[in-house]
Input
Amino acid sequence: MIDLEEQLHRYSDFKSFRPGQKAVLTQLLNHHDTLAVLPTGGGKTLLYQLYGAITKQRVIIVSPLISLMQDQVSRLQYLGSKRVIAITSAMAFEERVAILAHLNQYQFIYVSPEMLANATVLAAISRQETGLLVVDEAHCISEWGPDFRPDYLKLRTIRKQLGNPLILMMTATATKATRTDILVKMGFSPENVEQVIMPTNRANIFLSAKICLNQKEKNQVLVDLVSQLNGAGIIYFSSKSQAEQMAATLTQQTGKRVMAYHGGMANQRRFRIQQQFMNDAIEIVCATSAFGMGIDKANVRYVIHYHLPANIQSYVQEIGRCGRDGHQSLAILLYEPNDQYLQLNLMAATIPENQLLAHLYQHPNQLSQNDAFRVIKYYYDNGKSFEQATQIFNQAKLRRQRELNTMIRYIYTTGCRRKLLLQYFDETIHDLNPDLCCDFHTDFWGHWQSFNQQYLMQTQSVEKKPLNDWRAILDRLFLLKN
Amino acid sequence: MELSTLYILFGDLTQTRRAKALKNILAGRRTVSNLYWALEYDLLPYFGALRDFKLGDEKNALDRLAHLGLIVLTDRFSFQLTNQGRDQQVNLLKLLPPIKKLTIAAQNDVVRFSSRFIFATQIVSEYSYSNKRYYPQTIGFFDDQLIKRWFIQNKQRQLPNYFQELLDRFLTQLHDDLLAEIFIQSLTGHHFSGETEDQLSAKMGVPPTIIQLQWLMLYADLLTRVQQIPTSPLKLLLVGLARSPMANSTNKTLIMYRNTDYTPEQIASRRRIKLTTVYEHLLEAAIVLPVNQFPFSRLLAEPTKQALESHQPSIIGEWAFKEAKAAIPDLSFFEFRLFQVLDKKRKNDD
Ligand SMILES: [Zn+2]
Output
């Protein structure tokens, strides 16, 4: 039997495994197909990085988040693997051709499900021996989930074309029903797949929410919090422009170093802000929920939602970005009654109106012209009538409304927030510490300053005192050996 | 970049300039009309210098500048600087390296060079600290490959020392600590993440566009310096940066015309392109090339030229084709434009 701890030290700088990692690796090394439910920050990347390093085999990672894929490549490089590449529709045609011609040079290949459905790409990948197929964000295969991606349904056949390699399906949060759905859609019977499920609960994150009278009050609360809270923070917004505006306001009114961070920015700018956040040169980023961060910053002390997310799963994923170092952290959701309409509008934008649906059913050639129509195209191609499709989308709309209502119930709850949250994932907790659980057990909002003082650590800055003298900066940039 | 800042920098106190053409010139939108205006405004060497930047909306920029009294609009989309605008121009120019440096960015892909150089600096900086665990920048597949190859080939050449010396010499020679500071903040490396243009803008109290121009011009300067060192370990980072002054197809038309005695009609049929396209290619070449490298006399018959000379007004740039045509009935637009180009180029040569 392989000594996993030894391998961990050999191939990474980590001192020990995070919960669940060892169990998953053991299953994989015993050649068992595995479904892993690991919370964000649970170290998903390390799993396949280590598997690849130990077995020297090629790993294909299917991931739906094109905007994040390059970050994932960087992250794997950061973790010490250099032969990594991503194939996405975002890259230039010549680039893709060059990469496909030299695919054998890469051990870790990231690919979007849409790209994998492309015959040329699939053929090039099938020519290589694949040791492990990783399906990231596996819940995207679930038709009744909010992140449904029709191309995920093709993965079952694609796996066969790749010679049925060992498979690792991963997701951060999945209810029991979603888990079963994933397995069925991938063509497994549940008894043939090992499931490693780690609890969603993150005991070191304090949960709180505040209902404000209006936006003005919400802004004031945000300014107060940001001025005083210790350590690094992420604030989530539902639009880029709001994130930009608030970053400017907070810079002006709190004296803290705040930057906006979202998908609309140029690569170099995004990289620099990411670096600054990693190096603690800026303390707070105003981000859009649609756009996560590829980096793994361990010492984020708090996550504030300026706008509520669409559902509990997203919320749990987003707050999971704080406290990865295990120290006490804080999740705050700010809400004012108008926010739900904002979220309803966003929701309406993701589900096609009847009129559009009717138009596309009459002009099906337009279905392939826009990526946003891929779900409609899927139903059309599968012979669903207009009436059936309408019904499916109406149901989707109702489902999302229900999910949003659950989210709002979380905000208005008069009980323990953690219990409510975990109930959603069929989880229970036994040993909760009421002082560090949520704002139901203590008067958090009356005493958040002292909570901050007592529990949230200040950042120990890595980037030394900022220098203004270019000579001093230059001297420090390169360590010269004489 | 803020178009309003660029309009101040590239506006003129006496010559009326078309806002749209000015923007297209800087963005490098290669049409005969844009090239012609670039010639007319003496901005041909700047053609396409800012092609990698988003330049914003003309109307907003003009409204803002007019409102501030920095320009006067001569019609809805043309403007001249006011005296106040001219003062502002002088102030902005003081913040920049000599504006001529921007022409390097028209001839070379300076932005691409800068992203290669910044990435190379990060790699060398981390390498000097023996740190292998860091997030590398992402600069596209081909450049990524290029930099990996470069690093492997040059690792033995004491790169940290080389970078340190190169940058120290380069920044010292600027004789401007503020510019040197702005340059160094464009880099990233071991526990150093530099600053964005808006962070520097807030710190220095100058518009973000000026910071971006400073960066572009400083990297242009650095590029020329590195090009001049034949043994530089950075040689490989310079490949594929040169920009050709003419489009490929234009060049083909020109070569065919120069090397044969084909008429434009014959070239059109040989090259299977439209006759108007042939004329556009020839005009583009006439504008871009030095006078003695373009066959003006073959395309502009002596009698036509003499007729044009005898009717031309004092400012030929404002001569409308309609007026010229009224005086010389069988004049074509091509001949008219070609004459304008020739006249302007001769005056520039004097
Ligand atoms: Zn609780």
